[in-house]
Design brief:
The protein is of the alpha+beta class. Strands 1-2-3-4-5 form a 5-stranded antiparallel beta sheet, sandwiched between helices. Strand 2 and strand 3 form a beta hairpin. Helix 1 packs antiparallel against helix 2. The radius of gyration is 27 Å and the shape is elongated. It starts with a helix and ends in a 6-residue tail after the last helix.
């Protein structure tokens, strides 16, 4: 699909989604107004009946629109995701003439695959889906791992266990600090804020250990790897 056709299709789909949202509100309002008119006691004056029907119409419009959003919200998110994808897919390189050239092509593809995999898995710690999901900000490596530059001296590291379908995100620094397992954006914010203030990110307990469990495998595997 060309860029023009993709943009046109996205515009039409977005218009249909917004049209469905508006239609659901109108239908809910009309149904509410009719129901309110039918429920209004005959003893009420015309003005009171109209006000009552209008109130029921508003409630109906909000209720039906809220129900419609349960379906439309995921569709809006899908369209936003599609709109951020590259408009054109890059062509595959020409067949390699030598083994060295073929290896170089595979290395490049592996690095791009690692960056893409990290961006796709980032929703596990970033539900907003509009920060860590940017593949262009991930740097992939030929070992299948990837890093996301956060600030000078601080990167987010991603490692996937394909056989177990697990994704590990770890905060790495270039100043010798131990890697920190990350499970949510609030942890990254806490760590960066502490570094900016020159304070320890995790309080030290009485026995001298930082509180919270450590992943020894990650510590051993990731210390110093791909750190800035």
């Amino acid at each position: 699909m060309t860029a023009t056709l993709r943009q046109t299709a996205n515009a039409v789909a977005n218009s249909m989604i917004e049209g469905a949202s508006m239609a659901s509100a109108l239908i809910g309002g009309a149904a509410g107004a009719y129901l309110g008119h039918q429920l209004a006691p005959a003893a009420w004056s015309d003005g009171t009946s109209v006000l009552f029907a209008g109130a029921v119409a508003v409630v109906g419009a909000v209720a039906i629109d809220g129900l419609a959003e349960l379906v439309l919200a995921p569709m809006r998110r899908l369209m936003r995701t599609r709109s951020t994808l590259p408009s054109t897919r890059r062509s595959a390189p020409a067949p390699a003439a030598t083994l060295e050239e073929g290896l170089a092509q595979v290395v490049t593809a592996t690095e791009e695959d690692a960056a893409h995999r990290a961006a796709n898995a980032s929703h596990r710690i970033d539900d907003s889906d509009n920060f860590l999901s940017d593949q262009n900000r991930w740097r992939g490596y030929e070992d299948g791992e990837a890093t996301f530059y956060l600030a000078p001296g601080v990167v987010l590291h991603h490692r996937a266990e394909r056989s177990a379908y697990k994704h590990h995100f770890t905060l790495l620094t270039g100043d010798g600090e131990q890697p920190v397992v990350i499970t949510g954006m609030e942890q990254i914010r806490h760590r960066l804020a502490a570094r900016a203030a020159g304070l320890p990110a995790v309080p030290v307990t009485a026995d001298g250990d930082v509180d919270g469990p450590k992943d020894d495998v990650l510590d051993d595997d990731l210390t110093g790897i791909h750190a800035v």
